[in-house]
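Table S7 (text form). Paired inputs.
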Amino acid sequence: MCCIVAGSVHDYTLMKDVFTPGSAWFEKVNLWLDLGFLGADKDYQSTQIYLPHKKPRKSKKNPNPTLTPEQKKQNRKQAATRVIVEHAIGGMKFFHCLMHRIRNHLGHFVDYFFSLSAGLWNYKIC
């Protein structure tokens, strides 16, 4: 099923609308999320939730906040995993039918666009 929303909708807000917090949606899978999903570890149960470490805020006590080398290493490892998915989504947008508003009343028509774009992109990268 395809869920099309405006680009102005925040990712985590959309996730909470589609997948009800507290339910068992992600119990048996690992979640690789970015910092746009802060709070998902409290709202959802999962085998493992991978969130990058957030840089601490600047304050009087900590005027030069930085992440530890271990945290930076973990963030790079997570980013290397997530970038594969991000490139696949970006590659599907290469086919401009996904970037523009589709003015069609047939709901399944949008699903065809996604399926065709994913198939063509997979064919291109093989």
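Next pair, protein 2 of 2.
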Amino acid sequence: MRDIIMEYATTVQFFAPDVAYADAKKYLPGLLQKRDIDPSAAMAVLDRLASVVRCLDMELYGAMRQQALQRIAMRDVDDWPVLACAMTLECPIWTEDTDFFGTGVAIWTSDRIVLYLS
């Protein structure tokens, strides 16, 4: 995933909701430590990705909250910010999470995303 992002970073804009970064910073160190993995390298990668994958503040996508919740509520309510960002920006979602299928937004998985980006 990181390699694809870095390869296309000069020609494609990547976005993620602010809560995605907040959750990663909050939970990733503990998850890695439970697996006896030093989290410092992963956190450094996350920091580098933040310069390429733009963080969207809720002020930008919050207006789509209700609509996103209506579309994803039966699957995973916590995913609404990702869907709201995609709806706001009118762009597809790159994910392996099948909860986004059928939400009315195009979904690309990692094994197919290069087709879209090219």
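The chain has one domain: 2-117.
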